[in-house]
Amino acid sequence: MEEKQEAVVVAINKSMNRFWLILLCIPILGVAQQENVNSYKKRVLETTEVDILSSYYEQTGNNASVTGGIGNERLTDVAPSIVVSVPLNDDDVLSVDVGISTYTSASSSNLNPFDVTGSGGLSGASSGGGGGGGGDDDDEEDDDNNGGGYSGAIGSPWVASSGASRQDTWGSVNIGYSHSSDDRDQIVSGNVSFATEYDYTSIGFGGGYTRLFNEKNTELSLKGSVFLDQWNPRYPTELDSYVEVDGNLNAGFFSGVNILNRNGLVTNKNGSLTWRPVEGFSLISDKKRNSFALSVSLSQILGKNTQISIFADVVQQQGWLSNPMQRVYFADVPNYFIGNPASIPFYTSAQNRDVFMLADDMERLPDTRFKIPVGIRLNHYINEILTVRTYYRYYFDDWGLQSHTASVEIPVKVGQNFTFYPSYRYYTQNQIDYFAPFDEHLSTSQYYTSDYDLSAYDAHQIGFGITYTDIFTQFKTLGFGLKSIDVKYNNYHRTTGLKANYFGLGFKFEMN
């Protein structure tokens, strides 16, 4: 879903923070290459380093994919992590990266949006549900905006439920190893990883080889990775419940609950003119999602002040590539509701607080996807105060998606210890072949999604960061010296209406 994919920006920003620090050293490396490196063998990593990173991310929007492309997208995410790099000897380095990401999502909460007012309570069969529409602290007006005292099952794509799927914690651990040759012209690396959240687990492994030529002015890198993922699927509560009672709308979750047509009239649940999922509904059988990636990059120092890098990736995915949590609605199928009939006319407006449209199906996409991103980086050191870093990437895949990304960052050194770096990033994409907005798909289609992450949009991100660096590590704590502090802020917005803010904080320590 869109909030999970946005949360990936957090991880990308963390990786970029490390990359920025490396690039600041390009002029120094250019001078160092002129020295006689054969007189001694310098350790790849002098001493143990510890990075303590944390971030806070928040977003708002009105195109929640869990509720079919409309609804509340409010999300917050807190993601601390720690990275420990240990030199095993002169040539070998072991690294361990452990992180968690705890988020609260209005969209995910509506996996089960249903609640009952004026009675004993109601929860759906979905284990991700059990919720109460109107549980959001920001929606204090809900109790007074309930159709003039309507009592019965309610739900709304605009109100966050208080169900179990509203909050989740993602955790990951990555262990990496690298070995450098005596002349430092070759680097061999490998890693294994594990990540999990309540509906998904991932096991990954990979390796890489780097070769430096031309007195270390040219660097060629090859990397491969494999991710073997497994769904523990959660479904929209009405679809899950339909399977649980074998289509009997008078049993289980549906017992005693009225199903309304678009005119607000109660339907006969034993007849043909009532809600049922298109083509029935069955749970997914293939719960695997496997990804295979091969990356190649070529980096060249053009002069003592300029470096250029060209990179390309080839990614193949296979398995269940859809998200079973995300609803889809069809334009050629009648709409049916649970909740207050008075709110049906303005269902797609945030004014709706107490009626919910039953899903026609969940998102369905092809079981393979082939992706190719290619890009270039150009970094130029102007003087000891100013550096310019630029980046461009073109992406395409066999789902019809094409995108362009361009960014620029201008680090400015302020005094001996501080660097200020403003940045701007522009992104644009078209929509995939299988996207349509809320209630615009046709039931005759084989594949369909209303996830706005796969729609056409432009995005702008403006940010800045401040880095404090102390090469002498004068501040000491617990046997470690503080090497640097990094603070970062990004403001992001899409033409679809999604808005987000990101705050990052990082500390690097090295053992005395």
Structural class: mainly beta
Count of extended strands:
25
The CATH superfamily name is: monomeric porin ompg
**Order of helical and strand elements:** HHEEEEHEEEEEEHEEEEEEEEEEEEEEE
| Tally of separate helices | 4
Number of domains: 1
Q: Mean pLDDT across all residues, rounded?
A: 87
| Sheet having the most strands | 19 strands, antiparallel
Gyration radius, to the nearest Å? 26 Å
At the fold tier of CATH, the topology name is Porin
Question: In one word, what is the shape?
Answer: elongated
Strand content: 35-45%
Write the CATH architecture name: Beta Barrel
Describe this structure in words.
This is DUF3570 domain-containing protein. Residues 118-134 have a biased composition (Gly residues). Residues 117-165 are annotated as: Disordered. The chain has 512 residues and is mainly beta. The protein has a single domain (2-511), classed as Porin, CATH 2.40.160. The protein is 8% helix and 44% strand. It contains four helices and 25 strands. The strands form four sheets. The protein has a 19-stranded antiparallel β-sheet that branches. Strands 5-6 form a two-stranded antiparallel ribbon. The protein has a two-stranded antiparallel sheet with strand order 13-16. Strand 18 (387-397) and strand 19 (402-409) form a beta hairpin. The chain is elongated. Mean pLDDT is 87; it is low at 1-39 and 116-147.
